[in-house]
Fold this protein.
Amino acid sequence: MHESLIKYIERHSTTPLSERDISSIKEAFIPKKIRKRQYFLQAGEVCKYMAFIVKGAMRQYSVDDKGAEHMVRLSIEGWWAGDRESFTMLTPTIYNIDAWEESEVLIITKADMNQLTSIPAMSEMARQLDNNHAFALQKRVHSSISDPIEKRYADLAKTYPQLLERFPQHLIASYLGVTKETLSRVRHNLVKK
Amino acid sequence: MHESLIKYIERHSTTPLSERDISSIKEAFIPKKIRKRQYFLQAGEVCKYMAFIVKGAMRQYSVDDKGAEHMVRLSIEGWWAGDRESFTMLTPTIYNIDAWEESEVLIITKADMNQLTSIPAMSEMARQLDNNHAFALQKRVHSSISDPIEKRYADLAKTYPQLLERFPQHLIASYLGVTKETLSRVRHNLVKK
DNA sequence: TTAATTCGTTGACAAATGTCAACGTTCTTT
DNA sequence: AAAGAACGTTGACATTTGTCAACGAATTAA
């Protein structure tokens, strides 16, 4: 169960993990199954756990006054789920996170995460994760103000082809900030070219 | 010259700065004047310095194939300028940063920044800065896919009223991802309501 | 197996946004 | 002081996107 996380940490750090480190990590990260459509986090709650996705697919989204859902994040195995702001600031979240597929995750509290910071590989991994997350957000902001939807979709397809296979197009459309109809037409036009 | 930075660090940390800390900081941050329209960073370069803006206003933007500029960031005194990804990964940037107003900044290299990490208040400030930066980006992504322009503009006006006073509307429009004409009309409609 | 839901597509139309040109005002530069 | 550039606005029109409705195919549930 924890193997993929251990590998992930090793891949995202330079210092090796001792056997003691590994058992500390296994203790801190609690396995949890999340059924399809079951919530991991609901708007208004404080995000008490970060989840490393071992298997499955999850989505993070807000719901507006009219009941429309807006996907801010789509994640699959090997990625993380959770609202960072709520998690680190202990403030109520505005997002919902639920499982799109039957999922298995490893959850950790903030306190336990801080504990693990004493492991060099772990803090290194966390820093790298934070950086990559910020860089990805920056790129998304940039493309949202600079690129036409054709390009935004094409870039997404190239960078994260797995997402297109795992999530239906109306969720991808929401993630890109357009309706499912426009995405359908954009795709139609791309094929022609 | 360094007073505003020192205050900034103290405001963004809980542990106090010793006199030694302060002189280390003063050594690491080099004052620099940047003339109106002068580049601080150009696309293709590696971002060697982060700049704390003591006075003035700067903008960070990309230029597309058609020569159009896209503002990803607008900053004034008390904020930072620099491309984080290029700075931390040592990769060439795709952004330009220049001074919109006559500016005075304090610049620091990555090596010196790492040195200063030994000062608790400094690493605490850096962490908080990174967090706030990521949270702000997250909010911007969310609003870009969820909110109509009226709301995006109104939120900007409420959250960062200083920006509207310091930068002309066509830059604000670009920052929001619309043309200056649409922003002009959006503003016109907002007044009516 | 059948019924119901979800998903993706398409058409018709409305609404929003972009493009281009023109204009007056303000700010800079000479 | 005069000339030029930058800025913000407006109108006309083209293009893009959203909305609503309908449809068939695929998937899921009964």
Remarks:
- The radius of gyration of chain A is 18 Å.
- Chain A touches chain B at residues 62, 64, 70-72, 84-85, 88-89, 130-131, 133-135, 137-138, 140-142, 144-146, 174-177 (CB under 8 Å).
- Chain A has a mean pLDDT of 96.
- Residues 148-149, 178-179, 181-182, 185 of chain A lie near DNA strand D (CB under 10 Å from a C1').
